[in-house]
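Re: export button greyed out
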Amino acid sequence: MKPQQLTRIWPQHETVLLLFIIAEVTYFSLFGRRFCTVDNFTNIVRHSLEIGLLALVMTPIILTAGIDLSVGSTLGLCAVLFGKLWRDAGLDPWLAQICTIGIGGLCGACNALLIAQMKLPPLIVTLATFSLFRGLAEAITQGVDAFTDFPESFLFLGSGQLGQLPIQAWILSAAAIGVWLLVHRTTFGRCFRAIGFSPEGALYAGLPVRRQLALVYVLAGLVAGLASLTYTARFGTAKADAGTGYELFAITAVVLGGTRIFGGVGSVHGTLLGVATLAILNNGLSRLPNLMNIASELSGIVTGVLLLLALTASALPHWLKANQK
Amino acid sequence: MNLSQSIPGQIPLLQLSAVTKSFGSVSALKGVSFDLQPGEIHALIGGNGAGKSTLIKIVAGAHSPDSGSIKIHGHRVTQLTPSAARNLGIACIYQQPSLFPDLTVAENIALRLEKIRLFARVHWTNRRLKAVQLLKLIGADISPDTEVRDLSMPQQQLVEIACALGSKARIILMDEPTASLTHKEQERLFALVRTLRNDGVGIIYISHRLEEIFAIADRVTVLRDGESTGTTPVTETNPSALIKRMVGREVSTLFPPAESQLGPMVLSLRGLGCTAGGVKNITLDLRAGEIVGLTGLVGAGRTELARVLFGITPADTGEISLNGQWVVITSPQDAIALGIAYLPEDRRRQGVILEMPLSHNITLASHQRLFPRNWLRHTTEQTLAEKFIEDLAVKTSGAVALGNSLSGGNQQKVSLARWLATKPKLLILDEPTQGIDIGAKNEIHKIIRRLAKEGLAVLMISSDLPEVLGMSDRIAVLRGGTLAAILPRQCTAHQVMSASLGLKEEGVGA
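Workaround output, generated via the alternate export path:
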């Protein structure tokens, strides 16, 4: 087959991912124990909200050819500070929640300042704040303090139900629609891609490159703040280790969803499919009767292989074309 | 003309015969012959894009010629690589010294001279002694233990020369070695160059300063559009004759005729300067319907001036008036809002985003105007893109095609469309036809003329002399970051070149 033909019939990344999800669900329904139940799907949604939120806001960042390794740590710091504000400062829970989201925004602004204004590389800046924010969270709690006994009104954010659906489904849908519109339907999204493809080209087109870069990192901080609230409400405790490793899950989901790590190319629906693929995989593996004990190890292996396959598949048409010449 | 015939029996150090080289569709050298005798300083001059850099890169082994032969010390060389060139005794001293800033002078010299042997001991003492010896030879007062980053530009140049000496180079290429030197340093360099010549070294000396060539060179070769216009002993020529050879025949009449009616004043600059950009004291007026050509040698500050006007490196002195109002421009967004458009020089990196569809590229600078509430409107975008594709006759499969599917000329049209979509009052074009085939070039010239006729003020930066002369209503010549002359439409290529080179001549002056 000629490469041109291959490129033409080679399906969209999102389509492949959707087919894979269908295959996953079918397989686990057939071989998993109590996989295909309403309860279990509710469970999957409940557990994937925070990673979903972080992956959503990671998408515009990677579109600008950036990266944010600090979102998980921001989540942890925000969770601890929320506990502090509510229990030790005696703030009204609602006010404490708003302040927490604001603190997330400040963490994002800290990254934004260094990346957009000082023009430092995002990988290193957020590697530093990744360490810094987690360290602060541990220092504040001295590694042992945990905040518990939150009021019912707050815990609703973790275990509540609105209509037939868990609260998480509503929050995730709202965030997904918001980020989808931002990336696909506004001039901001267009700017993110332009910056990702060519920062110099974007500058010479008169785009406000610095402002746009600042925007994506601040947005990530704000949403990490929000995720810290749902996380705390879901577990009922706020500890310094909240959201450890979530930044990597989020990046995995985004890249699996077809967003190019070098920027420019990608979609928010791709990211959502990436999140779904990983969430279903994790849940399904733990329900296979004879593999239950090694589910988490297995899920690591499968995720790694999947990511490599996805990257290879998307690079294959270009590779064939290049080698043809 | 050919000195190798006038000195029978002597083998030239270097002999190039009918060398050609092209990059894509652009031919940089079209059969150039050149020779260098032992004990000779051979000057190489020519306007921007004449092929000087390509020629020296071929001699240095950085480029291989498409055809033609190279003989070094009388032997034909086929595979000339940079390391082979060095082993054959060729050394290059570029305008920007290429030393490692974090290493000391002695280490830098050693890197050039010592052979690399795995696991060999480093003889620090020998290394240092060698450096001291070489530096002393050229009379440079530089400690071998200084880190290169602490040296001034002329000092770095001296280290480069020391390297060339140490490698026992018989052929030394010097590309504008005096560009950053003071008069005194220049004198010392000249003395050194003369000593080298007396030792039988051949030196190819590239410079824009004609007076230097008459002061130091033995022969001079003038390149023009990739061709050699011949080699002459300097005693048999004069600056005016050289300039004539650099600019060539009078401009052909390929350009669309000027028929603009001048409208009101659009742009006035009063003593404009920007320290970071290296532009100072520019005073210039530009009317609606007028095309002002902005020219000068590479490094004269043309692009830098455009970047000041577009807000990339904002001005720190002087004033800008736009449509009769004093304005401050601190960012490209300011500039666009004020109706200034800038078509950048590097089409592929700055002009278009190659991986984006044409429609996205065309609307990229007009988001504010087209989508005031930040919501993209697909039909508006598509209609506008299609209109421009038709208007400017962009050859493409459609508005959804990616930028990198187009030829250079069509990419340039897309870049132009992007700026016309902003509805500008002032259009700054930076080398609008560089590297574009002749057909598309002609089309772009017609478009520029049409835009001026429609009342746009155009500031056209160009190195292409015929283009500047053929398109401009007035010509502003920059030299060393400042305005050297403003010439009327009827001026000659000779006058423009003289002003660019800083030669005083009758009929030149603001």
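The first helix of chain A runs from residue 3 to 9. The button fix ships in the next patch.
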